[in-house]
Specification:
This protein is about 20% helix and about 30% strand. The chain is α+β, with helices and mostly antiparallel strands.
């Protein structure tokens, strides 16, 4: 096991500097891999991000070393200089191909690395989330933790790795650091509420692995029904308003959450840019590498829900959080204050305008492969 610093580069599009610098650093990652898995990880990232032109790799042999040494570089064979145009019309659910190439870089064999291990097979047809995607859980591999495992997963004695899908792949990504129970979504045949996918949806919003609706389609393909009803034993569905609460963190920084009892869309942080537009940030307030406008992300999420559940009237209601329950109780919501930035005040109208335009362009586009959502009888 070795430690690597992988830095990806994109073509410089700045008119003032592109003649001096052809490429600019895009994003860097500290990763820990067996040597033979490093290139799998890099080329999975290349395939997912064709706008990345190449990467450089530096390495060190143990985490305590202060400096990296230059190791290698790699050119992206999938590179496209022109940006990929976003096509909003959905494919049929059966035609959507979910590429788990980033996860495949974490699929390993542990026999040569661990002295003692035990395999327990799974008989209850459970489905597990790894990253943004879902897999059939075939069993678990329980191993004595190596020194590398202890440092990576904070385990003293044993560690449990999930074994997934028909090719029985063993997964060792960082998601299993806190165990795998919280990653198990349910069993085949279960019906779960949309909000039960909160953790996976928030992960995907941070990491940009796929569209929100692709996550939902992926889970239903594994035999679990996603419900937009208020309760399992009730036929009453959520209203056609996605209620979004916005919390002001500082003069230009905000956080948004969808309200309890509404369709769930992922939580996000955002700020008001110098151009008065709203942009995503990470939790610390730093701009994300993707620099996407907040309105684009929300429209994509709501449009995906509208398509997935066949709810063409689904729109947003944007409110201000006036009293924060911090997850222990429901937030108190109210109108957006008049002294907030104009782009925040007008966010609701702009989102709904974009949604109207998409539905006018694609009036008959909806998920025809949705699993039937059957109401359970009250006990």
């Amino acid at each position: 096991m070795a430690y690597y610093l992988v830095t990806y580069y994109t073509k410089n599009t700045n008119e003032k500097t592109k003649e001096v610098f052809n490429d600019v650093p895009y994003k860097s990652f500290d990763v820990e891999f067996q040597k033979e898995k490093l290139l799998e990880y890099i080329f999975a990232y290349f395939e997912k991000n064709p706008f990345v032109s190449y990467c450089t790799v530096m390495t060190k042999h143990w985490s305590g070393e202060k400096e990296y040494d230059m190791y290698c570089s790699a050119v992206n064979p999938h590179f496209k200089e022109e940006p990929i145009k976003h096509e909003y019309k959905h494919l049929d659910a059966d035609d959507v191909i979910v590429k788990d190439t980033l996860n495949k870089a974490h699929m390993v064999s542990y026999e040569p690395l661990h002295k003692g291990f035990e395999v327990n097979l799974e008989s209850e047809q459970k489905v597990i989330r790894l990253g943004a995607y879902f897999y059939d859980l075939k069993g678990v591999l329980i191993c004595e933790a190596t020194e590398a495992d202890k440092e990576k997963y904070y385990r003293e004695k044993f560690i449990t790795f999930p074994i997934v899908d028909d090719d029985w792949r063993v997964y060792d990504g960082e998601e299993i650091c806190d165990g795998i129970e919280h990653l198990i979504v349910g069993k085949k045949g279960d019906t779960i509420p949309l909000a039960a996918l909160r953790e996976g949806a928030d992960f995907n919003a941070r990491e940009h692995w796929c569209a929100y609706d692709e996550q939902l389609v992926d889970l239903e393909r594994h035999g679990i029904t996603i419900s937009n009803r208020k309760a399992k034993d009730s036929a009453e569905e959520f209203s056609d308003n996605v209620v979004i609460g916005i919390d002001k963190l500082s003069d230009k920084r905000f956080r948004m959450d969808s309200d309890w009892g509404s369709y769930y869309i992922p939580s996000r942080f955002f700020y008001v840019g110098d151009d008065d537009e709203l942009y995503e940030t990470d939790e610390e307030g730093k701009p994300t590498a993707y620099q996407q406008k907040l309105i684009t992300r929300i429209v994509d999420d709501v449009w995906g829900l509208s398509w997935f559940f066949n709810k063409p009237n689904l729109r947003v209601l944007v409110t201000a959080i006036t009293d924060n329950g911090y997850g222990f109780q429901r937030n108190q919501l109210g109108p957006i204050p008049k002294d907030w930035y104009y782009t925040v005040q007008t966010l609701e109208g702009e989102i709904n305008r974009h949604l109207d335009e998409r539905h006018q362009q694609y009036p008959d586009d909806y998920n025809r492969s949705k699993r039937p959502d059957i109401v359970e009888e009250k006990k």
